[in-house]
Amino acid sequence: MRFDIVTLFPEIFSGYLTQSLLNKAIQASLVEIVIHDLRQWSIDQRNHKIDDRPFGGGPGMLICVEPVIRCVEEVQAMSPDQALVVLLTPQGERLSQPMVEQLSTNPRYIILCGRYEGFDQRVLDILKPIELSIGDYVLNGGEVAAMVLVDATIRLIPGVLGDEQSSVDDSFSRGNRILEFPQYTRPREFRGLSVPDVLLSGNHEAIASWRAQESLKRTTERRADLLPPSS
Ligand code: ADE
What we know:
Number of strands: 9
Oligomer: single chain
Strand order of the largest sheet: 2-1-6-5-7
Strand content: 15-25%
Mean pLDDT: 94
Structural class: alpha/beta
Distance between the termini: 42 Å
Shape: elongated
Bound molecules: adenine
Radius of gyration: 22 Å
Largest sheet: 5 strands, parallel
Helix content: 25-40%
Number of helices: 8
C-alpha cells in the first residue's frame, strides 16, 4: 500500500516513519510512504508562499487552490496505481474501525494535511476528496491525523503484524466490535494482585468464556453505546 502525504511540515513525519512496526513494514516493502512538501508547488518562486487571506475577511489564512491541484496531479502521476484522495479535517466523517478496515483494501492514497484555517473551497470542489476527521476536537493541522490514519490502516495489511489474529481480536475490530478483555503476563502475583486462576488453568473453553464475559462487562461499564440495542 502506498501513501503520498502532502504537508507543509514534512519533518513532523520523520520520527514516526523510522520507528517500530511502520518502519518494519516499509523495510519489508509492504508499505511505501512518500512525503511531499506542498511549498514545492508554490507559484511564488521566491518565498514559496502557499496561503493567502480569505475573501470577505475573517481571521487566519487559507491554503490556495492552485498549488494543491498542481501538486495532487503531479503526485498522482508518480505511480501507476490510481490514488484515492483523503483530506483530513475536523469537518470530515469521523474515522472508525469499520472505515479503517474498508480503507485498508485500497492500494494507494494521497493524504492532504490541512493547516491554518483550511483549504480554499475549490480544492474540495475539484478533487472531491474523502474528508475524514479523527475526532470531535481541533488539531493544529492534519499531520497528526494523517499519522493516525496510516497507523490504523497499515496494521490491517496482511504481513504487517506478526500475528494476524491480533488485529481481529482488538477492541472495535472485525471479530469483536466491543472492548477487549483484560490481559496479564508474568509475574503471577505483584503487590498482592494475582492473575485470575482461569487464565492459568489451561482450559481453553473456560478461558474463552471468561474473556467474552470480561469484554462484555468492560464494554457495559465504559462504552455501553457499542453494545447492540437489547430487544
Ligand atoms: N485537522 C484539525 N483537526 C482535525 C481532526 N480532528 N481530524 C482530522 N484532521 C484535523
